[in-house]
Amino acid sequence: MTFFRPFLKRLGGMAITLVAMSILIFLLVELMPGDAAQRVLGQSATPQAVAALRESMGLNDPVWVRYGRWASGMLRGDLGTSLYMRGVPIASIFWRKVGNSLVLAMLALLFYVPLSIVFGVLAGVKAGKLTDSIISFFGLATMALPEFVSGIILMTVFAVKLAWFPITSVIPIGESVWNNLDILILPALSITFVMFGYVSRMQRSSMISVMNSDYIRSAVLKGMPMRKVIFRHALKNALLPTITIIGMNMGWLFGGLIVVETLFGFPGLGSLTMSAVKTQDTPLIEVCALFITAVFVVSTAITDLLYGFLNPRIRYPGGS
Amino acid sequence: MTSKPLLDIHNLNVVYETPSGSIVAIRDLSLELRANEAMGIIGESGCGKSTLSYAILDYLPPNARRSGSIMFNGDDLLLKTEKEMQNYRGDRIAMVYQNPYSALNPSLTIGEQLDEVTRVHRGFPRTQAREESIKALKDLSLGEAEGIVRRYPHQVSGGIQQRICIAMALLCQPDIMILDEPTTALDVTTEASILDIIGELKERHRMSLIYISHDIGVVNKISDRIAVMYRGEVVELGPQEELFDHPRHPYTRALINCMPRAGVKKETTRLNTIPGYVTRRSADERGCPFASRCEKRNAVCEEIYGLREIESGHLAACDRAYADDVSEKKAAIPLVPKAKSPAGAGATGGWSGTKDSSAAADAGGFGTVGPDTATTPLIRLEKVYKYYRNRKRTVRALDGIDAKIEKHDVLGVVGESGCGKSTMGHLVAGLLAPTKGNIYFEGKDISATWQRRSGDTIRDIQLVFQNPGRSLNPSFSVEQILDRPIKKMLKIRSRRERRAMVIDLLKKVDLGEEYLSRPSTRLSGGEKQRIAVARAFVTSPRLIVCDEPTSALDVSVQASVLNLLGELQEQSHTSYLFISHDLNVVNYISDHILVMYLGRVCEYGLRDEVVNPPYHPYTEALLSSAPDVNPSHKQKPIRLEGAPPDPSARIVGCPFAGRCHKKIDDLCDTTPPPLKRLSETHYIFCHLSEDHLKGSAHL
To answer: Across-strand partners of A279?
Structure first.
């Protein structure tokens, strides 16, 4: 019981965050100017028709009743129906797009996490030397390039000039993302461009501070070869802050790829959110926003747990 | 000088190349370490002691340049490549550091960190390496070695961590062990047992030691020869006893005289101080490095300089200064006699008038004196408890203590870490509120945190903390630091008036007006602590809680801060609650001493009553653990094994029973010790009779 208590506490906290966020999201979207019924029927609809639709959509109920209806639907897994796509259940398109985004996010992770850790460690160990300067310059340069610039550069080089990859990342109708993995490479690379500088700089600075610590001095002065000092003594400690950074960016990687997905025409959560906003499709906006929030909350919790697991000072609380 | 030296450092120079020029860290240093010899190295911080050890092991920052030679077994270590040095480090030359907690890797188990030494240097397979590690731990009398290897460093106490570091250094049976302040972060009792172990291991393994410390008492205990370093040079070198009995270099003398020691009291003596501080050294500097701070300097100091033999084996860089009193024996170290007030009269007036009614003392402990008594103490703690509770356990930081602080008096509180001395300070200062019990300030109940105390009480009780670097706001100037409490607590509006007060306060702590605009980050450690003291005196408080105010400072700076505290206390109507782990310091500054163990009082009395027999067995053990500057004070040592018991355990009998060398079986474990009144002012909680308490430590 005492063992699970922290987990229960954590779960409770997550639930509260989600409820609070769902209220906020619902209120913001509902308070957006414009009338849903009017939007569905178009500008030429008669006021009577609009009023009738309002009544049948339940828009005349008080806000808290509408929230209750919406929230209980979410809990039951009923995501509602799209306004723009005239009655299409959101669930039928939403989960497929989430799946696509998941595949892209995983591939991007696979690219940038090892890359930025390896180069971050290298820069940290060689701090102040030429290697460090080159890596740091490259990291800063890629970080400073917005995704749409780096994306276009990648497209020009690899899709137009070299023609190694397709220029857009559209999945043909009736096929899944798995038969079209080549379309993922360029978007994933462009995400790597954004994240590399960020994560590798973090890794570099944590490596530098660890390399200056007393226990690394102990390791060197007990005659450990450099390889052991870095991989056995330094890395385990220097990875901890990096893991936090990566975990905290999971939410962004999952739902915040609006620019990248739109640029490449990739059918993921980002471009879905984008089109929902453009078409003022309120139920869809709410679902997307709530889902991205949930990803943030869950990935932060997982990061914390992982951090605790990797750090013996948290795993085995003190006491002499 | 007959045997060939094991380590022969010849004309070693270490220079740091910086953009603003070269800084000399080690200058023309020559030193020989013989087989099975313990060489002590002393000096203030910044004198190059640690740089020397890192220079031997080639662990210096990239901008450091070494020249000269370091011959070890016929090889010059300066010519070795990084790869070759790996075979020396940890194998032939091992090192132990000041802070064992940070010297161990937090993410690896203790076993993993030990095993790799023999795996790398000896190529041992996993199981054999583990066996060796366990054996090494057992060698250091760590009984439960099999369990320890599986734990992480943060799961064991500081004393055990340092033993682990020593075991790690011993795994390959090195020829030389370098110890850099290995006991500075530890309790006196732990320090004493670690020093014993080091001395014993040195003989058993026929090792040589280089023992670096700022604590002359500790170096004295362990060393055969001692080298005194100042600004990168050895200024004096000689056999331990010779060097202490007849120090020749003014710096050696000054250092020795800085240390408070047995028999030196604030009433009669002021501690010696060394004016100025250790400055950086540029490459073109000539002459005696100490000249600018030396009271005996003259014109020749600029020219004639160099280490030379004065007597067989005793070298000094300067022997003119004290050439005349070489013939004097032992007491060749004059302390500065105090100019003001005849001995004992002014400063200690407080306690002579104190009378406790014995009825009250018998009824509820010695602190219990009714508030209506004519001589109400300034502060009285009555059955004060402070518990820290969490889900798992209750830590009894203070377990029903009675104590009092007299008016115009210094109460020194000693005990090992975790005994509750800081908690007591925090309760009195109102940083914490007691769980149970009462604290009275001149009879008025103040058992609450400062938020619920009156402005007058807050003004009357002030604080000085251990680390002035962290207790002063780094973005404030000296004037801002002192001006704020004047404005907030004394409610003085006029800027001119406030500035005059700030200048006055600075004068009080011997600092000039030029400090007004100085940012607190640009002050030295001693200056910072002076500002912290000045800040505490802003409101002319009746009591200042000093929590380890000098333990973060160098000995020379400690001396000047102790002098300052002593003088200010004498001039004002202030009392101190002086908390320290250093018995010598407490002995110097206190009028009364309170000895605490595991949240309870062991002994209370006038200073001389406490530090002389009869005393509580715990006091006796503490006294015998404290390193004495005077090496001729040979005592029969009493060593406390292990650490104090878990403060969350409920103890029925005497809390000290488990570690007591005079324990009466059964009785001490089951019955709380009774209060024994040995005099009007002297109380001991112990089952032993007065004769038994007289002890044998000083015989």
So the answer is: none
